[in-house]
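The material for today's practical consists of a large collection of protein records. An example says more than a description, so a record of this kind follows:
***
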Amino acid sequence: MIGTAWSLLPPIVAIALALKTKEVYSSLFIGIVLGAILYSVSLGTGIDGFLAHLLNDTVGTGADAKSYGMIHCLSDSWNVGILVFLVLLGSMVSLMNKAGGSAAFGRWAVKHVRTKKGAQIATILLGILIFIDDYFNCLTVGSVMRPITVRHGITKEKLAYLIDSTAAPVCIISPISSWAAAVSGFVSGNENGLALFCKAIPFNFYAIFTIIFLFCIVLTDFDFKAMSKYDARFKEWYERTNGGKLDDVSGTKLHVVEHGVSANGKEPAKNNGSVSDLMIPILMLIVFCVVGMIYSGGFFDASSKQYMDFVAAFADSNASIGLVLGSLASLILTVMLLVARKTLTFDEAMSSLIKGFEAMVPAILILTLAWTLKSMTDSLGASEYVAHVVGHSAAELQMLLPAIIFLVAAFLAFATGTSWGTFGILIPIC
């Protein structure tokens, strides 16, 4: 089954199950298990070989040795770096919310954002500013803008659309982001993954046009038909309650920022927080991540050929290491800043780190399963099989290959609900 059409069965099964169940975690895991079964059956290694390949299996010796399985994927230094980066980002968001920075920005925005269009434009602009990671983007912008958009009669569905349609597109065209690290990490061989990522940015029309489209629908008051029904229901509730406190569409409490309640509506926000408690950590994160990237590329190393050459150092950087260095420095300085200003106690700051980790568990799980499924398809020779089929096909099919890949990627992303999972499956095959 290795190097044949059977090698494509695990991702196909994962796609089919995701479409049927609308649940991506179990679908990816079943695809992983199926890949390990096909591999062990092909080599006749039995149950021991199946378990070894599923968890941690090394094939070959010396320089030709290759490892596969979930434990191998989680022990890879690049992968671990991305996971650590996500945890640090979650902790940063938790600290900013706990310190009241999000609530303070909300109070500032209430005074300066006076229209419905202004609230939506502010949401998009804040989303563009936070280009480091889409989870960090969604958590931060959602926390800050939710009370403000409620105040201006914007539905939570519309807010979610604006946030999500900004977060992913701005990250996929930003070379200083977790997306750049994840995508370049799926590139194998002697290719520079980050350099390829940067070269693809001008051609990422989806991301560019989506951001332009967001401004268009806000300025023209256009809404999709499905979105309009939520707007009508929201207006009815808003008028009935005269700016009340309960969203009867979802049954969740939404408090406006003047009530001194945090954006999640569950715990009191710090009244002594300021806008700087939000903006300074974000700016530090951006600056230090840039510094971390060029540091990993040899910018400050006198013995490196990239010494003091920003472009060359950035192109040759290790995104996993650079992002971890930048986010770790930002987190430490943020804790020191908040504790020194007595905005938070040290114990409160440390408890926020745990909450930040919890917020990033979905992203960590998706990446773990995507990396392992990629490992299974690699071991079955899926990329070699597809390359062989395409290489021996008619010239017309090769000319249509970009269009075919686009359609498959769109279907796969829709089926699994994860862009990173789509990268993990398709990049090695393509």
User: Anything to note?
Assistant: Confidence is low (pLDDT under 50) at residues 244-269. The longest strand covers residues 57-59.
